[in-house]
Every structure is written in structure tokens, then in C-alpha cells.
Specification:
The chain has about 160 residues and is mainly beta. The chain has one domain (about 5-155). The chain has helices at about 20-25, 120-130; strands at about 5, 30-35, 55-65, 70-80, 85, 100-105, 110-115, 135-140, 145-155. The strands form 2 sheets. The chain has a 6-stranded antiparallel beta sheet with strand order 5-1-9-8-6-7, with helices on one face. A 3-stranded antiparallel beta sheet has the order 2-3-4. Pfam families: DUF1203 (PF06718).
Length: about 160
């Protein structure tokens, strides 16, 4: 089964970097500086920010569906980074992290799920996509619960 993992589009977040700290707080967001080179996963590039990099921590609706499975939580984004695009490969931000993988149908209803320990993401993604009811997957960091990335079927799915 072929799959594609993409980061979020940066255009939606670029205006946040021009806001004052007070304006960010009013939008339930914060400007932060990465204190280490791990632990600040950017949801655009799907890489951890480097120590000293500026990020915006914000509340993000990752699963905007009219079902009980709609979901929103805090995420980090970096300024002026390209949208990640991985085909049949997991991004660096998945490495070394346990992930919750939630498989949804076209209507946004949860159909299946898996826990992927470090090094297991590719196998667990393929296992979920073997289920024909699963149209796409949302990956979340298992410990903190934050949205990591969307995973879609890609190419020939026969």
C-alpha cells in the first residue's frame, strides 16, 4: 500500500509571526524559542526545530469534520519552511516517538487505530491502509496527544 504524508500549508500560519505577543495570546497562541534541538516538532516541515529557532505554539483544528471525531489541540509551526511531502517514508518528526494512528473513513468516522512504537510507524500505517474502510490516517504523538500529520493513500491503490 502506497501512502503520502504531508505537512500543513505554511500560508495559513505565516501571518501569526507578524503579530505582537499580546495579539498571539488573544488568539490562544504563544511565540516560543526552541530550548533544544528536539521536542519542538514543526507541523509544516515535519522536523524538530533547532535550538534557538522561533516557533508559534497555537491551538489547531486538525480534524474539522461534523462528527464526534472532530479534533483540535496545540501544535508548533516554524516560519518560512516548506511543506513536507513524504511518499512511502516516515518524516523525521516520527522518529523516536510513539504514535497513535487513527484511521478514518471518507465521512470522518474512526474505523480503526494502531499504536506505533518507535520504528513501527511504516508497518502500522500500511496495516491500517489494508483496511478498505480507512480513507486516511491522522498521526498523533501518543504521550502528548498533539496532531503530528495526515497520511493519505497515494498512487495505485489496487
Amino acid at each position: 500500500m502506497t501512502y503520502r504524508i504531508t505537512g500543513l500549508e505554511p500560508d495559513a500560519f505565516a501571518p501569526l509571526f507578524a503579530l505582537s505577543d499580546a495579539d498571539l495570546v488573544a488568539r490562544n497562541a504563544r511565540r516560543v524559542t526552541a530550548a533544544a534541538s528536539r521536542g519542538y516538532p514543526c507541523r509544516i516541515s515535519l522536523e524538530d526545530a533547532g535550538e534557538g529557532e522561533e516557533l508559534i505554539l497555537l491551538h489547531h483544528t486538525s480534524h474539522d469534520v461534523a462528527t464526534p471525531y472532530c479534533s483540535a489541540y496545540a501544535i508548533y509551526v516554524r516560519k518560512e519552511v516548506a511543506t513536507a511531502d513524504y511518499v512511502d517514508a516516515v518524516p523525521p518528526v516520527f522518529e523516536g516517538r510513539p504514535l497513535g494512528l487513527r484511521g478514518f473513513d471518507e465521512g470522518g468516522i474512526l474505523r480503526d487505530a494502531r499504536l506505533a512504537l518507535p520504528g513501527q510507524a511504516d508497518d502500522r500505517i500500511r496495516d491500517l491502509l489494508d483496511n478498505p474502510a480507512v480513507a486516511y490516517i491522522h498521526a498523533h504523538n501518543a504521550a502528548h496527544g498533539c496532531f503530528a500529520a495526515r497520511i493519505d493513500r497515494h498512487g495505485d491503490v489496487s
